[in-house]
Structure formats: structure tokens, C-alpha cells
Amino acid sequence: MSAAPQRVIIVGGGPTGMTAAHALTRAGIDFVLLEGRHEIALDAGCNLVLSSMGMRALGQLGLLPALKKVSSPVTKFQRLDHKGRDIGDTMFFTYIQQSHGYYPRVFSRYNLMQVFYDNLPAEVRSKTLANKKVSDIRSTEHGVVVECADGTSYEGCMVIGADGAYSVVRKYMRELALKDEQRANTEAFVNEEKPFLTTYRCFWIRFPVLPGLKVGDAFETHGPNMATQFFVGEDSAVVGIYERLDEPTRDPRRCTVVDEKPFVEKWGNLPLTKGTTLTIAEAYAQKMDAGFINLEEGVVKHWSWGGRMVLAGDAAHKFTPSTGAGCNEGIIDIVVLANHLRRAFSSGAPSPDKLNAAFKEYQDARYELATFGCKLAGNTTAAATWPNAIYKFLDLRVFSSKMIQKFFINQGVATTAQTPVFDYIEGEEEIVGKVPWVHAIPSRTQIV
């Protein structure tokens, strides 16, 4: 059999997968991207938040001007309880801007994905393929073969699984690990079949910018078993309604349109904003689109297998969206992974051993940070949904303090400042705050 192409197969065309497409393009590594949905740019789910570290990485890829045009900065959350009473603003975003020079920015998924797609070189866009639902992944002597439900197949030397919480790449990784004869007597390299726990589900509603709302507004409603996050953008407003399930589960029920009416009847009278009478029911009555998603949480133990497959983003670690960290962490996964892959591919198609070493370095760099971020996001969602008196007290009496908020941000400043950058892409530092970045964006003379 002839050697497999020196090509990376990216499975998943969301923010993590498209970041990988840009990163590999800049590294000079051939790839093909397979997305199961019918389009790369789709408007689905809640809005996404990009922080200074995510925007900085995408700025290295030349996307910053286009991203600014389709997003809105968020300076603070205005908070209220289920009865519409003011429970204090959270100023985390303002304190982050002071430290790192940039307010987080809110995007619709469609606008973010369109920026990713439009800013790929024209000759590269043909490598991003929609309607490609993966039906099988096989490891061969020289590489991997990915087969799709439409009968097509793609051969490469490795696969990046950027295909979300229900990752098909992770599924085939597990199956191959279980079949590996050399490891038949141990499950040391086998992931759990269901690695994520679901404690919350989210009902999201997109609707027009109604009177009394202005671009950049951000609100949260907190209270027993339910919290909301509400953002107002240029073209629409989006609210995510986080409901605590009766019991955590590794087998969450998939909700459909028939579940929407009972959900709105249950929570519809709850307020979304300060200073207006807007409720969940009124937002739903004006809806442009709506739907349910489960909010899985957890970190997969093994992010790669056999020097052939590696996971990134939600396929490797899944956060609740309360801190807005999930998308950013997926982007930084690709920064670290791409740096290692560029070196691995520097002298041709790398061996499985060489890729295994790169994958290990990547996971070693990212695992603890992902674990901490997952725990922080889960605790933030728990605080907003008041599962017990302790969380309620913390939410109302502790986290409402501006001094406490600033203290917590300051605890994370040093970690954020150490965020890596692409070590092979030159550029200028456009995001600058009072805390310097440890890893500077390289200049031409620094790139080897």
C-alpha cells in the first residue's frame, strides 16, 4: 500500500474546526474539513462570547477587523432575581478589560462562522466540505480513512476531532482503543463511553431588538433552578435560559419543538431585563428562532489515540456556557496543537510515534487548564441557579461585591497572561492592557 497523503482530516466545522483550518493553512499543512451540517455558517444556539485571549489568537490569523464589525462588546451584566429585583451588577468584563485591554465580544454563531469562512483564501475554501456526516474511521498501516454517509471517503495521516460534545471521532477512538491487541488487558487508554454529565439544559430564543433595548445590553436573571443570560446585538437579541434538571444524567433527553410550549408556560412570567417589562413569554412570542440544547460538562481523560486521532474543543472538554469560556478554550487548543503539528510536519508526513509525542505535549499543556475552566463554569451556573442556601448566599451577598469580583479576576490574571500564541505567525500586539502577555506575538526574525 502506498503512503497516505500528508493531509490532516478535520472533523467538525464549528469555531474550533475552522480555527484549525486557518491555523493549518498558515502552517502550510494540507487538510480537508468535514462538517456534518448542510452549511458551515449556520445560526444555531445561543450567542458566543470571545474573550481577549480568543480574539488575540484569531487576530494572529488576520480576523480581528472582520470580527469587530459583526460583534458587540460587553462591559457588565445587570442582574435581577425571579421577581425582577436588582441583585447587583457583575463587573467582571470591565476588570478583564483593565487587565488585558479588551472587552469580551458577543457574536451570533452565523456571523462568527461567516467570518471564518470568508477569510479563508479562495483556493482553500474548497477544502471545507459541508453535508459530510462521518460514518466510519479506519486506521491503516500508513494513516487513516474517514468515510462519510454519502459514500465519499477521505484519506490522511491523522484526524482532528473538533466535532463537539457528541464527537464521532471520540467514539471511534474508543472503539479502536478497545480493539488494540497490545492493550487488550488494560483500559488505561480507553475513554468512558459517556464522559460528560448533564446537570442543566438550555432553551434559547432569538428575537428582534425590541423598544427599550440597546446594543451591548447584557442581563442575567438568577433564582431557584433557573437562570438566564441575555445579550442584545446589532441585529437581534438572544436569551439562553438555563434550567437545572431534576437529576444529573449521562443520558440527557433530546428536546424538540413540542417541549417549547410547556417550558414557556413554566418559566414564561420571569423577567429578562431591568427597566422594561420584557419576560421570557414575551420574548418567545416575538421569536425569530428557538431551540433546546443540553449543557454537558466534563473533561475527557485521553485526548488522542495511536498517533492518528486527537480531540479539541468540546470533543475533549465541555463547559456550561455561563463564563463564555468554551469557545475560547477550543481556539487555544488549536493554537497549542498547531504549534506542535507544524514542527511534526516540518520534514514530511510524521510517523505515529512523532504524532503521539506531539499529542501528548498538547494534552499536557491544556488538560489542567481545561479541568479548572470546566469546574469554574459549573460553579458559576450553580451559583446563578441557587441549588441550596449556600449558593444563594454567595450569589447575593458575596459575588455581588465589586471588591470580591475584582479579587477573583485578579486571581486569574497571571494565568490568562500566559495564554500561548501561534509561534509561527508574525504580527503586532493589538490587544494590550496593564498586564503584559508572557508569550509575545512573534516578529519575522523570531520565527524559525
From TrEMBL:
Please name the GO terms that the record assigns under molecular function.
FAD binding; monooxygenase activity
Q: In what residue span(s) does the FAD-binding domain sit?
A: 7-174, 295-346
Q: Does the keyword Oxidoreductase apply?
A: yes
Q: Do you know which Pfam families this protein is assigned to?
A: FAD_binding_3
Keyword set, alphabetical order? FAD, Flavoprotein, Oxidoreductase
Q: Which domain of life is it from?
A: Eukaryota
Q: Which PANTHER family match?
A: FAD-BINDING DOMAIN-CONTAINING PROTEIN-RELATED, FAD-DEPENDENT MONOOXYGENASE ASQG-RELATED
Q: Which family does it belong to?
A: Belongs to the paxM FAD-dependent monooxygenase family.
The name under which this protein is listed is FAD-binding domain-containing protein
The top of its lineage is: Eukaryota, Fungi, Dikarya, Ascomycota, Pezizomycotina
